[in-house]
Write a structure and sequence with these properties.
Blueprint: H1 3-15, H2 40-56, E1 63-66, H3 72-77, E2 83-87, H4 90-99, E3 105-109, E4 121-127, H5 136-146, E5 147-158, H6 179-188, E6 192-199, E7 214-215, E8 222-228
Parallel strand pairs: 1-2, 1-4, 2-3, 4-5
Antiparallel strand pairs: 5-8, 6-7, 6-8
Length: about 230
Amino acid sequence: MDEKLRRLAAHADKRAGGAAAFSYHSGERQTGLTLADIRADHVARYVWARDVIKAKVAQPTQGLDVFCGNGYGCTLLSEIAPVLGIDGSAEAIEVARTSFAGTEITYEHRVFPFTDVLPDADFIACLESLEHVIDAGLFFATLAKSLRPGGVLALSTPHEARFPHSPVVTPFHIRHFQIPEVLAMAKASGLRLVDWVGQTRGEDQAPQDPQSLFCDPAEGMFVLFAFQKP
């Protein structure tokens, strides 16, 4: 099959909730089995989220990573407090339990919309996930509902103004977002913006230098937000 047609078919499957959207080896997920094998800009997002959460949340006791993929980010977040990693790919969760296990980390396979209520959390990381969900507003509200007062939601998503959505380029994304759209979802859920930054792709940058990947939010291909519940 022509590559363009293959990608369009993958996009149609994603919108229909097909099995390909949850495949660990779809080409959309990070599959490295150590933190050093994960793409640098993905690691940098979790480093940023971890540091913002540390600065903004006093004495956290429970965190969530939704959707966690193969669990690499949970290893960073678990430095703050115990973390529950959730993902729609059963394959990814099995890899996480083997390759990114830890005494402060647990994993669960869950597909949105969740049949069970998410546990309350002092912080939630949801990085590069909003764009994969058909009902993004409901998904955001679900995360905000689980956040305890004073808790922080660290969220990142592609920036439509700098990285326009294309079913051919990003077949597993439903859509990308303008900054005001994300801010509106936060306001509707009663959350306030406490920090944010833009990010470039930076595949060739070293993970030890995450600051080199960041920029003004308006200029970023991706935007990282930190929202806090009053």
